[in-house]
């Protein structure tokens, strides 16, 4: 009986979170919400933000398989995630598009998409968009970068030009360097440009 209750605990935790309203976007300095809650990774393992955190912090990105803006950022997303890992910053991507699970954002679709792009970091399914709600995330892609104390140090976009990497001013590359060196990130907040998260109507 105890084993059954223990196994059901993550499911119950997600169910309780699903009842929570959408929060305002996290403020700079805010702690990682629901840091210990497990989510299903494309590897089949259950992963939490706390599990994904590394020595110098954690990069959280709300993403998906279907958004045209996500597609424009594919190579830059891979580049930024690799740079984070190289600088001992953990990486976890979340797919919050609950209303699109049968339109290209299912768990199996996530596995195929990650394989195509060569992801070697966490990509988890955000069931019922509960983590997006807790973070106050509204777009894909949208980044929340936390320091090694689990405090939000940067929120926003990868760079300032979705259409052209060559003409873009990167926000994330210097943010990662500053986070690694323990320096203040400037700017701390930028506007996320992308597709609206496809939440399921309640």
Structure report:
- There is one protein chain.
- It contains seven helices and nine strands; from the N terminus they run αββαβααβαβαβββαβ.
- Strand 4, helix 5 and strand 5 form a beta-alpha-beta unit.
- It has helices at 2-18, 49-52, 68-72, 74-86, 107-117, 130-135, 172-181; strands spanning 39-40, 46-47, 58-62, 90-95, 122-125, 139-140, 142-146, 152-156, 195-196.
- The protein has one domain: Glutaredoxin (3-Layer(aba) Sandwich), CATH 3.40.30.
- The chain is of the alpha/beta class and 202 residues long.
- The radius of gyration is 16 Å and the shape is globular.
Oligomer: single chain
Distance between the termini: 33 Å
- Shape, per Cα inertia axes: globular
Write the CATH homologous superfamily.
Glutaredoxin
What is the residue-mean pLDDT, rounded to a whole number?
93
Strand order of the largest sheet: 5-4-3-7-8
User: In the CATH hierarchy, what is the architecture at level 2?
Assistant: 3-Layer(aba) Sandwich
CATH class: Alpha Beta
**Run of helices and strands:** HEEHEHHEHEHEEEHE
């Amino acid at each position: 009986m105890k084993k059954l209750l223990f196994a059901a605990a993550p499911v119950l935790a997600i169910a309780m979170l699903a009842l929570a309203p959408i929060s305002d976007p996290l403020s700079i300095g805010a702690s990682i919400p629901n840091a210990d809650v497990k989510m299903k990774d494309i590897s089949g393992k259950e992963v939490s933000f706390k599990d994904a955190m590394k020595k110098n912090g954690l990069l959280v990105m709300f993403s998906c398989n279907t958004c045209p803006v996500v597609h424009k950022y594919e190579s830059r997303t891979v580049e930024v995630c690799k740079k984070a890992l190289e600088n001992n910053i953990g990486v976890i991507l979340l797919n919050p598009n609950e209303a699109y699970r049968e339109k290209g954002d299912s768990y199996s679709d996530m596995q195929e998409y990650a394989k195509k792009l060569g992801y070697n970091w966490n990509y988890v399914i955000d069931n019922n968009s509960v983590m997006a709600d807790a973070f106050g995330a509204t777009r894909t892609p949208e980044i929340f970068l936390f320091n090694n104390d689990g405090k939000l140090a940067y929120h926003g976009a990868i760079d300032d030009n979705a259409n052209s990497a060559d003409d873009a001013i990167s926000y994330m590359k210097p943010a990662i360097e500053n986070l690694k060196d323990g320096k203040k990130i400037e700017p701390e907040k930028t506007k996320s440009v992308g597709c609206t998260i496809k939440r399921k109507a309640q």
